[in-house]
# Entry
Amino acid sequence: MVSNTREVALEQAIQKHLTGHTTEELAGAPAPVGDGPYVERSQHTINTKAEIMLDHFIPQVVNTKKLRGKAKGMIITQNIEAAIRYYKAVTKLPDAQGNPFKALIAFSGEKTVDGVKYTEADMYGFPESETRDKFDTDDYRLLIVANKHLTGFDQPKLTAMYVDKKLQFVLAVQALSRLNRSAPKLGKRTEDLFILDFFNSVDDIKTAFDPFYTVTTLSEATDVNVLHELKDALDEVGVYEWQEVEDFVTRYFAGEDAQTLSPIIDIAANRFNAELELPDAEKIDFKIKAKQFVKIYGQMASIIPFEVLEWEKLFWLLKFLIPKLKIKDPNQDMLDELLEAVDLSSYGLERTKLNHEIGLDASDTELTPQNPNPRGNRDGDPETDHLDDIIRSFNERWFQGWSATPEEQRVKFVNIVNSIRAHPDYTAKYEDNADPYNRGLALEKMLQDVMLKRRKDELELYKLFASDPAFKAAWSQNIEQVLNKSPVSRPIS
# Structure
């Protein structure tokens, strides 16, 4: 999706990149579906997208001196690895073209990419606490993010946003609204704003924004007791000792240097990564719960004064610990072999929308409050799409180039749904369960069980489900839509 006015130059730039790289050049059988996310994260692919971004940003934002020469842009990426690869691309290209502006990257903790360990501070030579202030100067014009600064970051000079990440619901609204900050002294206008989206469709964005377009109310209070449950579960694993939590928080708020605080975090991280010898499944479970605790507490603490001091202390420790928790992808070696078989020189981009106006629903909206389900369960009224429409929409988004026919795709989808309905826990723990949190947990477990049992028959599908969080979320959401559309415990066909 491309949204702006008078951006004909962008269309020409995209066409330039497509020349000689069209889908007609793809010879032989289609690539396995599991290659998709790995092709997208390759440096070659990211270089191509980065060049398109700069082909817009440099002539249309920098050279036209928007906001009196102070206009800035943001690149939103899938994850920290992709952010680092984008940073490499966008710092090399302007240098090669003799452009004076610089780019910044924002992420927490350490990340190893291609055998090299990166931190935010190491990549440009000053502490990450200074990133916001540095970006406000005229030297830095582009900020590359994955999650950090994606929400809650106010920079009125932002006018351009380049999106290569799945944005849903509140996250989409918060992220795209970064452009909405006024700068009257710089003459900022609506016409100055621009979004280039490689990932989300018009319908995706409309669905995200509709509930917040007019009056929005909560249907019920948010149950914060889940924080007790999450903390108890995290405490039991033994990754941290409570005295370590106390020690870290005391020293952190006393203003101690990061170098003196890191050993405390490293002790807990080493327990998780090595000493406790946790199975991969338990590591994944712990990290999911830790992230969810931070997310829920962070949201609730900003609007409700809590007196549970232990929650606040654990929140701060986990914020620094989570980036150091390492989880191994059991399918990595196999997927790397698949990636090697893909001809990246045949990668192509296709413009789908230009200057498209998204009409939003003006009616009032009632929302179900934050669901603490680690899978990100989506509550509310079920979608009204028919089964064929749900499957078609999903296949169009994720199975382009797959060798299966539409009917074969439908059969695979329906078989998964029917297997969930045949699961021994389905009726008691999902269909007859009024608690949305426990329903979500039950569905997540049942879907995991079904996918594991069917992985030999649907190996390509299972690889994508196990390795790509965006695919897994979309797959789970569509399964849930079908179950809620026809909740009676009978097979569908």
The chain has 21 helices and ten strands. The beta strands are 2-3, 72-77, 102-106, 110-113, 116-119, 140-145, 158-164, 194-197, 216-218, 365-367.
